[in-house]
Each structure stands twice: as C-alpha cells, then as structure tokens.
Specification:
Shape: elongated
Order of helices and strands: EHEHEHEHHEHHHEHHEEHHHEHHEEEHH
CATH topology of the largest domain: Rossmann fold
Number of helices: 17
Largest sheet: 6 strands, parallel
Distance between the termini: 35 Å
Number of strands: 12
Structural class: alpha/beta
CATH architecture of the largest domain: 3-Layer(aba) Sandwich
Strand order of the largest sheet: 3-2-1-4-5-6
C-alpha cells in the first residue's frame, strides 16, 4: 500500500524539539525527510540527541552544510528547489540573516511549504525569549489548572505536552493543511508555528469558559480538573495507583456498586460531600492491590484503569496486541525495541529499522539529484562547506 506522504520531501533544519518531532511523524507517514545539519567544524551549534531519541532517526536521510558560507548556502537552496517542505526552529530572524528563510527559498520554489517553529512565534513582545516546554505550559494556563504538590506548587508534568502537542503536532497539522491547499492552488505557504499558541489552543475549553462566563478555572474548579471524586487518582494497598474517570452517571453508579458504596451514587456532583466520598473511595481502594482492582473493575463499565510505570507500559498487553512496538538495529548498540509508527494511517514495518551511524551522510547523493556535477561536489568538499 502506498504510504500517505510518499513523494513528499521534507528538509528539517532542527536537531531536537517540536520541529524534530514533526519531521519524525511526517517520516512515519511516508515522507522523505532529510535532516540538515552543520558541517563537522560547526557541529557544536546543535544539540546531538542520544542514539535512541526521536525513534533513532529511523528512515531519515542526512545532509551537512556550512550555511554561513555562500557556497554552502547555495547548495542548500538547490535542495530546497526540489523540496516540498522546509522546517526550521531557529530564533526568529536567524534564517533570514543566513539567507535561507522564506523569502530566499520561496523565490527558488514557489510551491514550497515553509514551517517556522518557535517558542512564541515570529512576532509579539516574547518572540525573542529563550524558553522550553515548562515555560510554555506556564504561560498557557496549563500548569495553573492542574493539580498541586506540597505547598501549592504546580508539579512538573511527566510529558513535554507543549513540545509534542503544542509544537510538533501543531506543525504537522499546519503542514498537511498547506499541502492540501497546494494540491488545488499550486501555491506554497509560510507557517508561523508558535508553541505557546499551540498550548493556548489546547487550553481553549478553560480559556473560553473564563471569557464567556467570568468563572476562573483552576485546580478542582471543574469536572476535568478534579472537582469531583469520580474523576481522580487513588492509591492501592501495594503502593500503586488507579485512575478513576467515571464521568457518566451510569459508570459512576457501576463503580459505587462494585465498591459497596451505593449510598454515594446519587451524590456524584454534590459539592458538600466530595471530601467524604474521596475518603471512602480511598479507604476501599487501599484494601486491595492495584492489579486486583484492575482485574475486577476495568471490564465492569467503571472507567477505572491502572497507573503504569514506563517498564509496565512497554509490555502492556493492549499496546503489544496493537503492534505498537518495533525493533531497530544500531551499529554499536545492537538490536533494541522502540515505539513504532502508532498514529492512524502510518505503515507498520516488516523488518527491524536501521538506526544509522550518525557520521554517515547522504549529501552527495542528494545534491547529485539536485543537478550538481561531480566536479562541483568535489569543490564544495574541498572548501569544507558540505560533508
């Protein structure tokens, strides 16, 4: 079966972060993704992730350029002439100073989709701020609406929600939308992907509630932020935890019956007794181990599930049955498992992925395909502007 993005070529100028996540997912949908980095003498300007990160760069090609040298910049632009997408994650203004921004690339390729990913976007008073995932979750309201640790401290999430959803998935959606439009108009597009804007989009339910009603969302303000005992986490006898998300009344009634707490079924949203309901739920859950409760409750229409550790998650029967883990081979590290192409519509592999040696590049082959001769390549290598 033809992969959904077969025939689409992406040049990815990012080494880590949301842009790297975006190109990872585009590659898993079948796009040809070329990781573009600096030549060895400048390699310290980019973070080098561990071999296993970003799915060990499976299915990705690699090209190295000295963008500060006119010849290196021109070589990159030759690739951009034949590409469909360019993704970059420099601070706003940097790619224009290098001569590889939207203006320069679109002049050579009007059909190009150019995706600039940055923390706060290309405009606005924070556009030049240095920031990371936790910062975006803070300014977007996410941390304020979550639970609280000791002393009221917003806890550090266990997932980089801003990088992955606010940035990476945001970029993928925007790129795919631009490619769809291009298929009918023939026009490229410039995409200003702000990670903070992406977080704000994820927080729309809370923000829209406040804008429309004046009610200020926060911890335990509403159903989905822990106001009611029916949507919370509870410890078990063995020191593990369960998630309870019995939102619908019938699921809540089922849970109360299973726990011998039928008296609380009619009081699901009674604010006056939530502390007592929580205390009773906690007391009952502490009488058995997590997996005992999971066996008893998970298939009983109660919306109860275990809190798994990462080692438990990667061996979980549901994920294994779905084929969500695959094998990869590294020339030094050997064979290892990794999360496979899990999003809907991605093709599953028939054999282990090859985790390529980071020193191997495809620069010559790619530039030959862009029309450069062997003599031109030799001169670029001699000048040290490609590798």
């Amino acid at each position: 079966m033809t992969e959904m993005l077969e025939g689409i070529t992406v040049l990815d100028l990012a080494s880590v972060g949301p842009a790297a996540r975006a190109s990872r997912w585009l590659a898993d949908y079948g796009a040809t993704v070329v990781k573009v980095g600096p030549v060895p003498k400048d390699e310290g300007v980019q973070i080098v992730p561990p071999f296993y990160a970003y799915s060990a760069h499976r299915r990705l090609r690699r090209a190295l350029f000295d963008m500060k040298a006119p010849e290196g910049r021109e070589a990159f632009l030759r690739l951009a002439e034949r590409a469909d997408v360019v993704i970059e994650s420099f601070r706003p203004g940097v790619v224009d100073r290098l001569g590889i921004g939207w203006e320069a690339t679109s002049a050579r390729n009007p059909r190009l989709v150019y995706c600039a990913t940055s923390g706060f976007g290309q405009t606005g008073p924070r556009s030049q701020w240095a920031a990371h995932d936790l910062n975006y979750l803070g300014v977007g309201g996410f941390l304020h609406c979550g639970g609280r640790a000791a002393g009221g401290q917003p806890p550090v999430p266990g997932l980089t929600v801003a990088d992955s959803a606010g940035g990476g998935m945001h970029a993928v959606m925007a790129i795919l939308a631009a490619l769809v439009r291009r298929s009918t108009t023939g026009e490229g597009a410039y995409l200003d992907v702000s990670i903070a804007d992406g977080v704000l989009g994820l927080m729309a339910l809370a923000a829209d509630e406040y804008l429309a009603t004046g009610e200020e969302p926060g911890p335990r303000h509403g159903l989905l932020t822990g106001r009611y005992a029916c949507y919370d986490t509870y410890p078990t006898r063995d020191g593990n935890w369960l998630t309870v998300a019995a939102i619908e009344p019938r699921f809540w009634a089922n849970l109360c019956e299973q726990l011998g707490l039928e008296q609380w079924a009619p009081h699901q949203h009674d604010d006056a007794v939530q502390d007592q309901i929580r205390a009773d739920l906690r007391a009952v859950f502490l009488t058995r181990d997590r997996d005992e409760w999971t066996t008893r409750l998970s298939a009983a229409d109660t919306c109860v599930a275990p809190v798994l550790t990462v080692p438990e998650t990667v061996d979980d029967e549901q994920f294994v049955a779905r084929g969500d883990f695959v094998e990869a081979r590294h020339h030094e590290q050997g064979t290892f498992r990794q999360v496979g192409p899990v999003f809907a519509g991605m093709a599953h592999p028939t054999e282990p992925y090859e985790a390529r040696d980071a020193t191997v590049t495809d620069t010559d082959e790619l530039l030959t395909g862009a029309g450069l001769s062997a003599d031109e390549l030799a001169k670029l290598h001699e000048a040290g502007v490609i590798a």
